[in-house]
């Protein structure tokens, strides 16, 4: 199954992460594809590197809306994104709710 990142995006314009994901989620569904749990960690990492808390929170909301909020890959990305943004309390809340904690998560 092709990844979200292998699809060519025509005429890129600045949009919110949620709009971006939702628009391409709809496009992918129309083509018989769908977002999976592996699409969210790179988006969260990009938000972390840009110190864009708002974008990271939008991605968090979309992941939850689509049913990926309790996925270990997504949760680990969320913990790291919140910690990188200085939101240690939120990182701790996500970590405390995680059902599967491992060496990668606690590092």
From TrEMBL:
One of its GO terms (molecular function) is RNA binding. InterPro entries: PPR_At4g14850-like_plant, TPR-like_helical_dom_sf. It comes from the Eukaryota. One of its GO terms (biological process) is RNA modification. PANTHER family: PENTATRICOPEPTIDE REPEAT-CONTAINING PROTEIN. This is Pentatricopeptide repeat-containing protein.
């Amino acid at each position: 199954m092709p990844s979200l990142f292998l699809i060519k995006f025509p005429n890129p314009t600045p949009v919110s992460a949620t709009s971006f994901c939702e628009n391409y989620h709809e496009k992918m569904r129309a083509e018989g594809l769908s977002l999976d749990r592996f699409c969210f960690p790179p988006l969260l990492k990009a938000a972390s590197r840009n110190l864009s808390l708002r974008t990271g929170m939008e991605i968090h909301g979309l992941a939850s809306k689509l049913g990926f909020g309790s996925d270990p890959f997504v949760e680990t990305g969320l913990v790291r994104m919140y910690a990188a943004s200085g939101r240690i309390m939120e990182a701790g809340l996500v970590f405390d709710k995680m059902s599967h904690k491992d060496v990668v998560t606690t590092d």
